[in-house]
Write a structure and sequence with these properties.
Elements: E1 5-6, E2 9-12, E3 17-22, E4 29-38, E5 45-50, E6 56-58, E7 66-71, E8 76-81, E9 90-99, E10 103-107, E11 111-116
Parallel strand pairs: 2-11
Antiparallel strand pairs: 1-3, 3-8, 4-5, 4-9, 5-6, 7-8, 9-10, 9-11
């Protein structure tokens, strides 16, 4: 199973980016999906998470600015990021709990988001 993340890049503060991550490989089902990030010198933190039923959870720092969504038919998770701030600069990792014989946690390789002030 692979989780290639796409959509990172350089953006000015106040701008927007959309990340996407499509799980591929031998997949029987996908449970929760989410986005985490790790800034230089900091621990990885949860940004947003979405369950199979569509229940969304957000870090306080991104509430009202970021929106997570998923296309279950495509095993894809998205993160729409608006009103980006300098402190959103980080490597963003997608996550999925996938059943490919058994349930396991899978992580993408990360995509860099750089917000210039």
């Amino acid at each position: 199973v692979q989780l290639p993340a796409c959509g990172g890049g350089l953006v000015q503060a106040g701008g927007s980016l959309r990340l996407s991550c499509a799980a591929s490989g031998t997949i029987r089902s996908v449970n929760g999906m989410g986005w985490y990030r790790q800034a230089p010198g900091k621990q990885r933190e949860m940004v947003a998470f979405i369950t199979t039923s569509g229940y969304e959870t957000y870090a306080d720092s991104v509430k009202g600015r970021f929106t997570i969504s998923r296309d279950s038919a495509k095993n894809t998770v998205y993160l729409q990021m608006n009103s980006l701030k300098f402190e959103d600069t980080a490597v963003y990792y997608c996550y999925a709990r996938i059943h490919s014989g058994r349930f396991d946690d899978y992580w993408g390789q990360g995509t860099l988001v750089t917000v210039s002030s």
